[in-house]
Each structure stands twice: as C-alpha cells, then as structure tokens.
Amino acid sequence: MRPGIHLVHKRPGETSxxxxxxxxxxxxxxxxxxxxxxxxxxxxxLILAGPATRLFELLHPVPKTYQAGIAWGAETDNGxxxxxxxATGDASSLTxxxxxxALIGHLGWREQVPPPTSNKRVGGERAYVRAHxxxxxxxxxxxxxxxxxxxxxHDLPRSxxxxxxxxxxxxxxxxxxxxxxxxxxxxxxxxLRRVSIGPxxxxxxxxxxxxxxxxxxxxxRRELTDEEERRIRGGASIERGHLEEPEWRCPPGFPDPxxxxxxxxxxxxxxxxxxxxxxxxxxxxxxxx
Length: 289
Description:
By secondary structure, this protein is of the alpha+beta class. 18% of the residues lie in helices and 36% in strands. The longest helix has 12 residues.
C-alpha cells in the first residue's frame, strides 16, 4: 500500500474508525478517514494515508451523493434503524406531490441541528459518546448546503427512497427527521449509501488509490520549472504564472470550493499553493503522494 487517497467500500455494521485502524495496522501508514459514515450506512469511505492526511479539510466543500431509505410513521432517538422509537405519527395522508413540496424547502443553504449521536464535539468529547452514556445532548444548528434532492420511489404510507447531493457536513438523518416532523408523521432512515464524493465513486470491488496529480482534480494546476520547485520547497514565493484548468468541476450552481493550486514538477505532485501578495506560496507539502 502506498500513500494517497484510498477509495474503500464500507459495509453496513462496520465503523469508519475500525476500517482506519485496520488499514493503519496492515500498512504501517499514518491514516485518517475523509468523512465518517454511520455504522448502519454503507458506501464510499475515503482513507487518507501518509501526507494525504493533510487534505481532510479540503474534501469538506465538494459534493457528496447519497441514496437513502426512509420509513414514515416513527422517529428514532438517533434517526436511524438502530435507535429506539421516541415518537410516532400518522403517515396515511402522504402523497408524492406532498413529499416533493416538503423537500423543496430544504434545498440550498439552511440551518440544521445535527443528531445527538453525531460526530460533533461537545466540550472536547464526541456527541455520540455522551449520547450512548445516556446523557442529554443538545447541539447548536450548523450551516449546511443541500444542492439537489429528489425521491426515486415510494411505497406509501410506509416508505420512500431518496437521492441527494450535499456539501460536506450535511446530516441525512437530520433531514429525514425534520421532514417527518414538518409533515406531522415522523420518520427515520432505514438505509444510507454514499455513492460518491466529488469525482470518486463507491468502488464495486477492490480498493482504489488516488495519488499524484490525480489528487484534488477540482483544483487548478501550476507546472513548476526546476528553479520554481526549489523556491517552493525552500518556502519562497513564485509568480502566479499560467494556471491550467481543473480536470473535474462541481455541478453547475454548487458553491465554489475555492481550492488551492496543485504544484506539479516533472509529472509529480509537490505541494498545494495559495495566493499571497508576493505571488504563490506553499500551503501544504505533498511530496510522497
């Protein structure tokens, strides 16, 4: 195994952290995930290995696509099928047009209260740890972005299937919880699959590795001369020069992730650059990916 972004399929029941621990134990590489999935969920999990661990925050602003299964008529304490039912409602009046209309109100930038069993930190401790101890957890709302959402099918009044595209930090469990409350029938997730993150899809078979210039393909590129590579490596600035277009772009209308600039030298990825009054300077050293 080599450093880079590893595209891993997470199965239901596995935890994101257990997969990272297993990866570190088998490879000896320092690693972290690029955004956790709940234990009941499945799909694409990014494991960032070696210098790629420095990319974590840069993955947050790109689109993530999910497929979700929804059960109408009951809300659980954690918003998923593993939780305890805390409220019920009558879903007999639900219709596809009524559901479509309710969904529209959640598109774009919104304030969203994360589930109490989320990965958010409360006083230096993960919220889900406190919730699992039986403590009451009340989290403040977060600013989130939902780019696209549409129902793919219904078995009303029992269930529906939903496809959505959101920015990092979005809680599908919270969306379903809020829809159920607004419609007066309550609801929770029964299944969740992360289909893609940016240009990367859930691998059908073996783990795939993204490394070198293929990392962050939504970032512009700057080819370095030998002299410029020495300057960047030494912490000096270089002229902005010519920037090549990204190989992949976010969907039209999606918020600009404002990525840094990839610095390439002799076919290899050297660093991520940022703009400064003096020109381009190194933001993150990525040699070795």
